[in-house]
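Feature request, filed as a ticket because there's no other form

It would be nice if the structure record came with a short human-readable summary line next to the tokens. Right now we just get the raw output. Example of a typical job, pasted below so the devs can see what we mean:
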Amino acid sequence: MTDELRAHALSFGPVAAQYDAARPSYPDALFDELERLAGRTLRGADVLDVGAGTGIATRLLAGRGARVVAVEPSDGMAAVLREASPGIPVVKAGGDELPFHDASVDFVSYAQAFHWTDPKRSIPEALRVLRPGGTLALWWNVKDRQTRWVKAQEERLTVALPSYHYYGGVIAGSEELTAAGLEVGHVQLRWERQVTVDSHLTDLTSRSYFAVLDEERRAPVLAAERAALLAEFPDGLIAEPYTLDLFTARRGR
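Raw output as currently delivered:
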């Protein structure tokens, strides 16, 4: 991991509250598709939710009846998770070194987090802790860049923020998954949510490319975004369209 990537990976703790308040959730269809691709239900399954953050996906997995352990390296993110979901155990660790026994879980999930790992380490670790027939699940929830205003915002942020990045739907570690001889599945879902301009901007501040900036550099970019968004949405309400990519890889039985 480069120094720049490490700085981004470590930037979430101070913005954990914004992250939990404004990041999008996930539609039920995601978990329906996960169960279909895994060939089993989440109910009664043992799940490691790695890079759990503040527990947005963790709580939904638990709501499907899974026994979930949240795995999160950031103290700030884990503190918010524990406060919001005191019944969910949290282990401080990252995906490159999972402190769990071999063949001990049915699912290893990464919601918006797998790109912070080294696939050459995180994939073997996931396979080690998965039981025979278990599933590694990776998903990314990103705004649909085919929508005109989303594309325009991307162009503005690319100019304003040197470290701006947009996930393009290509799975990190695909070569490692293929080389491991795993049964790989992929499904793409589309959904949307309605938020206020203020909530949308709070979401932006929880993104690593904003979180690594000091207030002096962040404030003018946010002010410009507010003006552009209110010109586009004068009533202050935004319909955010999302493309959700789910990748699964199953161990043999």
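Something like this underneath would help us a lot:
The chain is about 40% helix and 25% strand.
The beta strands are 46-50, 67-71, 90-91, 105-111, 130-143, 183-196, 237-250.
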